[in-house]
Design a protein that fits this description.
Blueprint: H1 5-14, H2 25-37, E1 43-49, H3 55-61, E2 64-71, H4 74-83, E3 90-94, E4 106-112, H5 120-133, E5 134-145, H6 156-165, E6 169-176, E7 180-187, H7 196-199
Parallel strand pairs: 1-2, 1-4, 2-3, 4-5
Antiparallel strand pairs: 5-7, 6-7
Bound molecules: S-adenosylmethionine (SAM).
């Protein structure tokens, strides 16, 4: 079974910032690497499920014209909404994926530290929903902790194995270190994705 609401409600009842997104150098560095890995300078419409208190969302907001940031835990969604109130192009919604999924296409989907909470069925559903909603030349970025955590359904490596196994996604970035894996994918639909240099006309 996927990790349920009660677990995250308890986590947020115990701390304003349970993972130290605002305080840990580890988190700041990983966030900066995630943002730097995105192949395009600007995105029109992004989706970030599991946005927590909205710290990565704020970084994404500088690169996106519109962001849908969804968070399953009511307390975290309220904090994210309050913190991001100065950014009118960011819409924070309390909603749980993959049971719900937003309408329309996205040129960026951000799956950061989320998928190890999902059982096989939810993970498969979510990856399919992601692929189906990726616009042409859209970007999927996935980043996950690699060390064992008792409360997780699966490891970060397993999450990335599932994504890598999909034939409808092509991996264009792989950043691997002992603590986390960061991968960027693009849709396999229209042939091999163009590299950043190709998009910039350098090659
Ligand atoms: C470890 S935090 C990651 C936050 C953010 N994505 C980041 O990397 O900075 C995971 C967040 O996902 C939320 N979450 C877990 N399962 C969810 C689901 N099924 N739908 C939406 N949010 C979920 C949790 O409440 C939590 O806030």
């Amino acid at each position: 079974m996927s990790v349920g609401d009660a677990y995250f409600d308890a986590v947020y009842a115990g701390s304003q910032d349970p993972w130290g997104f605002r305080t840990r150098w580890y988190e700041q560095r990983k966030r900066d690497l995630t943002l730097s890995s995105l192949p395009r300078e600007r995105y029109a419409r992004a989706f970030e499920p599991g946005c927590a208190i909205g710290v990565l969302t704020r970084g994404l907001a500088a690169r996106c014209d519109e962001i849908l940031a969804w968070e399953g835990a009511p307390e975290a969604a309220a904090r994210a909404r309050a913190d991001l109130a100065d950014l009118p192009h960011v819409e924070v919604t309390r909603a749980r994926v993959p049971d719900a999924w937003p309408q329309g296409a996205f040129d960026l989907v951000v799956l950061s530290e989320l998928l190890y909470y999902f059982d096989d069925r939810d993970l498969e559903t979510l990856l399919k929903q992601t692929v189906d909603s990726l616009a042409a030349e859209g970007t999927l970025v996935a980043v996950h902790w690699r060390h064992p955590v008792e409360d997780h359904v699966r490891s970060g490596d397993d999450v990335h194995r599932w994504a890598s196994a999909r034939t409808d996604l092509v991996r264009t970035v792989q950043h691997e270190e002992r603590d986390f894996l960061l991968q960027v994918y693009e849709g396999a639909g229209a042939g091999p994705p163009r590299s950043v240099a190709e998009r910039e006309g350098l090659v």
